[in-house]
Amino acid sequence: MEALPVRFTIELPVERACALLRKELEREGFVIAGVVQPEGSERDETGQTSLAMYAYHAPTMESASRADRRVGLYMLCAITIRPYGQGAAELQGVSPTQLAGVWGGRRLEQYAVAQRQHFERALSRLEFDYAPAESNAPLRRRAA
Question: Where are the alpha helices (DSSP H) in the chain?
Fold first, then answer.
């Protein structure tokens, strides 16, 4: 199983990118577990700072918890939003597929895969709507 690291830029400042990401994840059925400023991150020259968002897909988590009640934090998706130049943000997301597969074995694998699909769908909508206009942008969606 893959951990699904994705990395892309969008033409929005960090705060706006965070708000739209939250909206897309919630639209896909995710619950936002928290948004924090990563330790050691500082404001850049435009006054923006990085944010980290943690979320889980509620229907998938509910099903996974029936398979293994200890599922907890092993099914969280993590997204880091960093300033990227003037008025843009870089998003890097990791679905917990590997961790859930290792920790929960085969019992959680199907749930981790389902969550990864929902996670990727939400990120894809955000990238499609707000990615830089030039087609050869250096950080268009690619493996991190």
Answer: 14-27, 58-67, 97-104, 106-130
Mean pLDDT by 10 residues, the chain (144 residues): 69 92 94 88 77 91 81 78 89 72 66 86 84 54 36
Domains and CATH numbers, the chain: 6-143 (3.30.310.70)
Hey, which residues does 10 pair with through a beta bridge? Answer: 89
Residue 32 host element (H or E): strand 30-36
Q: Rounded to whole angstroms, what are the CA distances from 114 to 9, 29, 72, 90, 103?
A: 25, 12, 16, 25, 16
